[in-house]
Amino acid sequence: MPGLGVKNRVEEIIEMEKKETRSAAEFPDEISFSRVIEEHQRQVYALALRLTGNAAAADDLTQETFISAWKHLKNFRGDSSLKTWLLRIAANKVRSYWRWKKLRAWVGLGRRDEDGEEPALEEILPDAPSGRPEQAALAADLERRVQAAISALPPRQREVAALKAQGLSGEEIAGVLGMAEGTVKAHWFEARKKLEASLGEYL
Amino acid sequence: MNDDEKDKKLLSLLAAPQSEAFWTRQKEAIIAATRRKSGPARAWLLVPAAGLAALLVAVFGSQLQGPRSDAPQAVSTAFLEHLDLLDDMDVLEAIPEEEL
Q: How far is A74 from chain B (nearest CA, A)?
């Protein structure tokens, strides 16, 4: 009987919708936000780490970025990708971090070791880089060289390089940093030249 | 190695090396922080109710205190009048009974 089959299918769809509505109502935002974190935390953290050179600060800034995103998620219009939006928040947080550090240094509150761009190596390296001491030493050396090379760049070149490393296009970087695309290209040209000179042996 | 490959290799060096445990710990910390941040924000919703409760307490409190504040004043007035009478006692004693 075809009529019965259609009825069953309708009931099935209604039941499915009910289930979907229930699960969405029970866990409306947290699960989806958890996925957003999983998807983008590496990029946000890497950006913060390369721009601050400090693992603890990068961790804090990553948290602050996602908390801001959580608060303002309703205001996200979707004009840019979620990744670009998050990285823009992170870049602004990093700029605020540097302003705060400069202010602290100016009033004489900043410790000298805090102002150094060299991060403690154990802060940056993975908990267990590879389980073998010689590989851990190589990883440590590479990490030290990479961070030193990027920290030596002027601020704008550093921002462009760190955002490029997160897979953003020139246009997206221009949007994040509020500069012309041509300026982004010029900064990347200079940054790449310097990074290649510093890290040539690893390329 | 051509320029594109060199670019890719260079940019891959800028990634942040961390263990899976680090990312999990960080994600949990972020979620916990967002919960903490949401808590006080929701508590602010109770402010109008708390304000109304405080207003009611103030109104009822003043109503309850009203008669009490009047009572001591009445007593003290009577007391003062009594004192006045006592002061005038000598005069009263001096007045002949017929005039009272």
A: 14
Q: Do the domain assignments include residue B54?
A: yes
Within A49-88, strands assigned E span: none
Domain count, chain A: 1
d(CA B50, CA B56): 10
Residue B75 CA to residue B58 CA, distance in Å, equals 26
Give residue B61's domain range.
21-94
> In this model, does residue B82 exceed pLDDT 50?
yes
CB atoms within 10 A of CB A82: 14
- Of the candidates A49, A47, A51, A92, which has an alpha carbon nearest to the alpha carbon of residue A69? A92
Total count of domains within chain B: 1
Backbone torsions φ then ψ of A111, nearest 5 degrees: -80, 155
Question: pLDDT digit string (tens) for B29-61?
Answer: 999 998 887 665 556 667 778 888 888 888 887
Q: Report if residue B7 sits inside a domain.
A: no
In chain A, which residues have their Cβ closer than 8 Å to the Cβ of B12?
165
Residues of chain A contacting B30 with CB distance shorter than 8 Å: 37, 41, 62-63, 66-67
- Could you tell me the CATH number of the domain that includes residue A142? 1.10.1740.10
C-alpha span between A183 and B3 (Å, rounded): 20
What sign for the dihedral angle of Cα B80, B86, B88, B92?
Answer: positive
Please write the tens of the pLDDT for every residue from A45-84.
Answer: 999 999 999 999 999 999 999 999 998 888 888 888 999 9
Give the confidence band of A180 by pLDDT, cuts at 50, 70, 90.
very high
Residue B25 placed within a domain = yes
**pTM of the prediction?**
0.66
In whole angstroms, how large is the CA radius of gyration of chain A?
A: 23
Measured between CB atoms, which of A34, A63, A202 is closest to B13? A202
The answer to the question of residue B3 being in a domain is no
